[in-house]
Amino acid sequence: EAQVTQNPRYLITVTGKKLTVTCSQNMNHEYMSWYRQDPGLGLRQIYYSMNVEVTDKGDVPEGYKVSRKEKRNFPLILESPSPNQTSLYFCASSLSATRKNYGYTFGSGTRLTVV
Amino acid sequence: LAKTTQPISMDSYEGQEVNITCSHNNIATNDYITWYQQFPSQGPRFIIQGYKTKVTNEVASLFIPADRKSSTLSLPRVSLSDTAVYYCLVVTLGAGSYQLTFGKGTKLSVIP
């Protein structure tokens, strides 16, 4: 089944403890992206990747890192999480960012709580 | 990036047709209009995409007038399961930087 898989689904952590949220897609998509969703603020893009080894900042990149060493994986790294990064996170992928848009496939989400 | 404006919320009775309009006054020539649906605590789901005139699929229709400054998502005969948030996005295609920006969306409530 074509899908975007995020792990974990739920995570509670303490301030300052490094964590990684994984994202993997099995559709050979070039484009991948991370979003966070907060009440009243909607979905905001954190980082995106046009292809392997190509990443760029979205609207709210502070406090996050990403890497794209292989096409299928796009992990989101929080080096030193803070409570204001408590949010619902979504990973998304799309066939291509430079040709006609085939739509984005989103993962099921990761609910992160930083205490 | 073209900014979009949608109603914050809409109510509809089951079985009715629902039309959600989105305005995007500064849409550019290379931009496409895309709509997504999101249920609580789930990722958005792609519904439909168009460039101009009318596009129809098994879920919805998308109407885009000639000036492309607005678009209307039409959901025929809604059911309770269509209660969700609907997002209108303007997507720019082309080489270079690429961002997909979601607005606040329209919260559709379908009433029995």
Question: Any key phrases for this structure?
Answer:
heterodimer; A: 115 residues; mainly beta; 4-stranded antiparallel β-sheet; 0% helix; B: 112 residues; 5-stranded mixed β-sheet; globular
Helix content of chain B: under 10%
Low-confidence stretches of chain B: none
Taken from the alpha-carbon principal axes, the silhouette of chain A is globular
- Overall SS class of chain B: mainly beta
User: Main interface pair?
Assistant: A-B, 29 and 24 residues
Structure description:
The complex is a heterodimer of chains A (115) and B (112). Chain A is an all-beta fold and 115 residues long. Helices cover 0% and strands 50% of the residues of chain A. In chain A, strands 2, 4, 5, 6, 9, 10 and 11 form a seven-stranded mixed sheet that branches. Chain A is globular. Chain B is mainly β and 112 residues long. Helix content of chain B is 0%, strand content 48%. The mean pLDDT of chain B is 90. The A-B interface holds A 4, 31, 33, 35, 42-45, 48, 50, 56, 58-59, 88, 90, 92, 97-101, 103-109, 111 and B 32, 34, 36, 41-46, 49, 87, 91, 93-95, 97-105.
